[in-house]
Amino acid sequence: MKDFKIIRPDEAMRPSIQDKIDNLNKPKGSLGVLEELAMQVCLIHQTLTPSLAHPCHLLLGGDHGIEREGVSVSPREVTWQQMINFTHGGGGVNMFCRQHGFKLRIVDVGVDYDLSAVPGIIHRKIARGTRNFLYEPAMTEEEFDKAIEIGTSLVDDCIAEGCRVLSIGEMGIGNTSPSSIWMSLFCNIPLDECIGAGAGLDTPGIRHKREVLHLAVERFTAQGVTAQGVTAQGVRNDVTSEISHAFLTPCAVLRYFGGFEMIAAIGAMLRAAEQHLIILVDGFIMTACALAACRLYPAAQSYMVFGHCGDESGHRRMLDAMGAKPLLSLGLRLGEGTGALCAFPILDSAVRMMNEMNNFDHAGITRYF
To answer: Which of 166, 343, 125 is CA-nearest to residue 270?
Structure first.
């Protein structure tokens, strides 16, 4: 896998940032979360006058082999149909990008359909969907590395245009399944507590999804896809709470269960962190990608702003496991990065506070604390 050089922001500026925040003409601490956000953004950009210039949104599309097992209420053709819809400006992601001034890049990383003739789609297809991880790894090592590189290069394109804040969304039927497994294995949470309805499964559908994902994880661990070739023997149905997670390498887990669009998102997050961009994290699936990115490079979380806690089962627990505080909880479960985009105005308010709000001296107001 590509090597990233990700370091936490230099803390030397913290006292001067705090001094500026405290001297704005307001009671100390009265703008709450906005003050916390302002501190984070100023540290990331290493300035007292941060900017959210040229915000970009990556919409990454890919299909999943596990969808063939009936783990989603939506058929796989919805992926390519929605990708085309996005090019016409008709999706939720289009609306929010227009509203908040984000440049939208629609990227085919692994959709099971020929989109090469569709204008408005960036073509980076690795394959027409991943393999079915119930029976074999979702992708090869070469495909995994390629997906990471695709995410990296997309961020480089954004940076070349002056981008300072990045959000990422996904389109891929079935991608809550790998997200649930990643959450279980990386956070050591029983798998049943990580699996939800996805796009709208009923109770029997959720039961079937649990059975399929349990079997997939059991087969994965039994095959010994672990560090130093260590095998896990005698696994039971509750394997995710019983196996030694110290033996599961992040890359092995990601490659075995992930989608091309998800691995590309991880590559994008890591490159954005390496280049000191602000990363706006969306809902369940993108939080799972953020979790994976932080398992690879813990310092990457310093650059992440978690936009939204959605309705998917387990999302709150995953955020809690990361110590992340989402800005919004609107009951969204659309994906596409819509929760991150909805949170952008709050981030913008924090930056405007630093750049536009007067201080006590300039305003001629007695400092009363």
So the answer is: 166
Q: Which residues of the chain have pLDDT under 70?
A: 197-200, 224-248, 313, 360, 363, 368-369
pLDDT tens digits, 102-112: 999 999 999 99
List CB contacts of 181: < 8 A, sequence separation 6 or more: 191, 194, 213, 216, 217, 253, 257
pTM of the model: 0.91
Tokens of 205: 């559908």
Sequential DSSP letters for 133-161: TTTS-SS-HHHHHHHHHHHHHHHHHHHHT
The pLDDT of residue 249 is 86
- Residue 222 is predicted with a pLDDT of 83
For residue 31, the 8-state DSSP code is T
Whether 175 and 207 have beta carbons less than 8 Å apart is answered as no
d(CA 213, CA 216): 5
Give residue 353's Cα distance to chain centre: 27
Q: How are strands ordered across the β-sheet holding 304-306? A: 121-123, 103-110, 56-62, 165-171, 278-281, 304-306
Sign of CA dihedral 153, 158, 163, 164: negative
Residue of 35, 67, 261, 336 marked active site = 336
pLDDT tens digits for 146-196?
A: 999 999 999 999 999 999 999 999 999 999 999 999 999 999 999 999 987
Q: Render 255-309 in DSSP notation, one character per residue.
A: HHH--HHHHHHHHHHHHHHHTT-EEEE-SHHHHHHHHHHHHH-GGGGGGEEE-B-
What is the radius of gyration, based on Cα positions, of the chain?
A: 21
Q: How far apart are CA 245 and CA 185, in angstroms?
A: 7
What is the per-residue pLDDT for 240?
A: 42
Q: Is position 336 annotated as part of the catalytic site?
A: yes
Q: Mutual orientation of helices 260-274 and 284-296 as an angle, nearest 10°?
A: 60
Q: Looking at residue 91, what DSSP letter applies?
A: S
The label of the residue with tokens 């997906």 reads 147
Angle at 294 between CA 45 and CA 224, to 5 degrees: 160
Enclosing H/E stretch for 105: strand 103-110
